[in-house]
Amino acid sequence: MKISDISLVFALAGGVLGQMLGGFDGFLQCLIAFVVMDYLTGVLCALQKKQLSSAQGFRGILKKILIFMVVGIGHLLDITLLGGAGAPLRVAMIGFYLSNEGLSILENLGRLGVPLPSRLATVIKELGEEEEQHQD
Could you tell me which of 104, 109, 13 has the C-alpha nearest to residue 64? Predict the structure, then answer.
């Protein structure tokens, strides 16, 4: 394969993904950044604890892919149910995942020893305890 062929494949894949996810707007760019930061901080935490696992990393990547699939479903519902009038379901789903990923990033930063404001650390701790109660 020539470089121009490879470029064409990546351009085509990017265009199709962008269309499926409702366009490459600021919301999607933020979500991509948060997903990447969460994954990287999670890997750093695993390295620090000497618990890095390829199986766990693969599961993490699959979860991140599923996030984008849900966003794609939200976009399809916006088109189908609302006739493309805005993107409230897509934006709501992205907002949910932004907050979820953001919280996970902050938790990971705390585990890595990055200082966090005391109020923020308290809120993260409370949310983590709530999550543990829901899992039991």
Answer: 104
Amino acid present at 110: G
Query: 83 phi and psi, to 5 degrees?
Result: 65, 25
> What's the rounded Cα separation, in Å, for the pair 28 and 101?
13
Secondary element (H or E) of residue 39: helix 26-48
Tokens standing for residue 97: 């995942």
C-alpha span between 22 and 84 (Å, rounded)? 10
d(CA 27, CA 104): 18
The gap from C-alpha 122 to its chain's centroid, in whole angstroms, comes to 23
Residue range 50-61: average pLDDT? 91
What digits encode the pLDDT tens for the residues 4-43? 878 888 888 888 888 888 888 999 999 999 999 999 999 9
How many whole angstroms separate alpha carbon 119 and alpha carbon 13?
A: 43
- Which residues, in sequence order, are CB contacts of 94 under 8 Å at separation 6+? 27, 28, 30, 31, 71, 74
Is 0.85 topped by the overall pTM?
A: no
